[in-house]
Write a structure and sequence with these properties.
Blueprint: H1 15-18, H2 33-41, H3 50-83, H4 94-131, H5 151-159, H6 162-188, H7 190-194, H8 201-241, H9 246-258, H10 260-282, E1 287-290, E2 295-300, E3 310-316, H11 318-329, E4 334-336, H12 338-347, H13 359-367, H14 372-380
Parallel strand pairs: 1-4
Antiparallel strand pairs: 1-2, 2-3
Helix pairs in contact: 3-4, 3-8, 6-8, 10-11
Amino acid sequence: MRFSPAFTGVGDLALPMFFASAENEGRTEEPTERKKQKEREKGRVPKSPDIPASLVTIGGLATLFAIGGWMLSGIANIATHFLGKFSELPTLDKSEAIAVFVFLIREVGLIMAPIFLVSIVLAIAGNVAQIGLMFTLKPLQPDFKRIKLDFPTMMRKVFFSRQIAVNLIKTLIKVSFLAVISYYLVKSEFDSLLSLGSIGVADSVRLLSQIAFKLALILSVVMFVIALPDYFYQKFEFIESIKMTKEETKQESKESEGDPLVKQRRRQMAFEMLRKNMFQETKKADVVITNPTHYAIALRYDPELEDSPRVMAKGEDNLAFVIRNLARQNDIPIIENKPLARELYRTVTEGETVPEHFYRVLIDIFLGLDGMRERLTRRTG
């Protein structure tokens, strides 16, 4: 019997389909950044819900530990105020009863507010740490195209999905870890639990509360540790789910690269970056060598710091025009020398010093600049 590589019905179930991956469906290419951005706009991002859940639990328990005494004191004061003087309270009509109810809700809310605030902050932090800042309402919009009454597909997703299998394994691992840790924690407190019958009610409640708090805190930390590798698995599963076929990659590349607006925007951004860099570097130059229209090379020579001139910026055609304009705006001398400009543009990159075979020509140019002769004299003297 030969197993079919595709799922065509319940009777065609095969062991390889249990571990079906993107490659089985022809999606062998890694998703592009554009594809990831599209999925992000839809609200599809890799994240582990256990991370914010465990952080909220840990933060709530830590807050309870820090201000638990204050919270119990506040609740006790409210109970004493109303229950302790219950027989002395006058008969309340509807409006007065509502006012008392609102007062109770407000006082209890103020007492519980620190835990709520800490929980909200940690819940947001746990999600932002995984997916960054994101807000979209698309996941809330109904998508009826996703509803497919295809029984074989439904059976495959419910019983023969890798994600279902992994979630089952994760659940079993978490339950096993928590059960073992709970057993050993309770076992370590077994002697204390046996003494409950010989102590008062208040001491018993205090002891049980301490044990329960310790157990909850340790289990929450364990849940957080288990959730960390789950995030990386969710990231892997997300990438697998949005992998692309070679045809999809080619089509997307064609759409991105072939769009004239995209190309124009990229050229504009590159040109602006070059202009910004040239503006800073050209201002440091001592002289600009031109072709005069095709090439422009901005040179700087500080004999007290360097042994040879350095190319600060260079450009051809439009960029050469920008360099010449910047030189005029900053009163930098412009020297026309066609062979020198052409060779400098061809052989020397921006930021490099000029090779020695250019020295004979450049020394005459720099000696003709105002102030350069004095600087050279100070160095040689």
